[in-house]
Amino acid sequence: MSDKAARREKFEGVFTKIRDELIEHFAGEGMPPEAIEWYRKSLDYNVPGGKLNRGMSVVDTVEILKGRPLTEEEYFHSALLGWCVELLQAFFLVSDDIMDTSITRRGQPCWYRNEKVGMIAINDSFMLEAAIYRLLKVHFRSEPYYADLLDLFHDTTYQTEMGQLVDLITAPEDSVDLSKFSLERHRLIVIYKTAYYSFYLPVALALFYTRVPSSYSVVNETVRPFELAQSILIPLGEYFQVQDDFLDFSGTPEQIGKIGTDIIDNKCSWCVNTAIRLANPAQRKVLDENYGKKDKECEARVKAIFNEVGVKEAYAEYEETVVGKLREQIAAIVEVEGGLKREVFDSFLGKIYKRSK
Fold first, then answer.
1. Which of 208, 271, 283, 329 has its CB surrounded by the most CB atoms within 10 Å?
2. Maximum pairwise Cα distance, the chain
3. Catalytic residue among 19, 54, 193, 267
């Protein structure tokens, strides 16, 4: 077994424990057997199936900040915080799939499309979110940073929901209006809908858990580690989503593991926003007439415009510029005992830069 597979297996072992703990509490409230079975199935179906990058990065970050292998208790607590991030992700995805009337998620039917589930999935998504606060209460209630964990999860959830609203009203699948699109609007959606919960949240959890102070002095300068981390991780999250948008257009199904659908789904993607910025009036007309149509020929015309205006070249330039800035920011971090470590950010960037899927 590879090191990566072994790490994943160990992380998944903690899910089994916290799922059983949640089920035990649920049953202890006097819930009937069919409800207990339903909740167990919802947890198993919706929480552990993805790549688990967000959750596992909490553990990785704690280990980097501590500079040593974790004790059993430290690993369990770090992984539990990681699974809270995965529960948040599951809450978002179950509800998002209903809003988007999606068909599949992670290679299986969306939860709401399962037999007898339907709109009960709305309540199931609420329960996935509520499970976060049950776990935090049981395991961190006596910690001095407990309120910080609650604030962080509440703030991040609210930010993600703000981004989701802007996305839904900017790019409804059944109403195409490219005049609502812009790179500025795309950036706002990406930062709020993805970057906060996917990149900042796991690192901020690790900072609280390892008791990194809210500020400390380095060579007569005050460092605010949470603000500094955010100033790197939010642009990093934006870069990740731009990359995702670009791979949807440029990647093959064999390469990215799915068929790109952003064009036919009227997504407010970086590619179309870049094309809008670069297009002449004739090219813009083609985009207006063909974008967001469930038609292969229309999709091909849009892709042809993307190629004509130089979306691939614009992406290559964007990537080198943003990665150069991020590397400068990371290199400027002055490391002190008990403070931020450059490796936290280098490891995130290393996983993303030039990825092809």
1. 271
2. 66
3. 193
Lowest mean pLDDT among 14-28, 61-75, 95-109, 246-260: 246-260
Label residues 87-96 b or e (16+ Cβ within 10 Å = b): bbbbbbbbbb
Residue 265 among the catalytic residues: no
Summarised one tens digit per residue, pLDDT across range 118-146 is 999 999 999 999 999 999 999 999 999 99
- In degrees rounded to 5, what are phi and psi of residue 206? -65, -35
Q: Is 258 a catalytic residue?
A: no
Helix (H, G, I), strand (E, B) or coil at 8: helix
Task: For residue 245, indicate whether it is catalytic.
Answer: yes
Q: Which of 19, 54, 105, 301 is catalytic?
A: 105
Count of other CB atoms within 10 angstroms of residue 125 = 23
Instruction: Tokens 């990785």: give the residue.
Output: 60
Q: 112 by DSSP, 3-state: which?
A: helix
Length of the chain: 357
State the average pLDDT for the chain: 94
CA distance 142 to 196: 26
Helix residue spans in the chain (DSSP H): 3-28, 33-46, 53-66, 72-99, 120-140, 146-170, 183-190, 201-209, 225-250, 253-256, 270-278, 281-290, 296-309, 311-331, 342-352
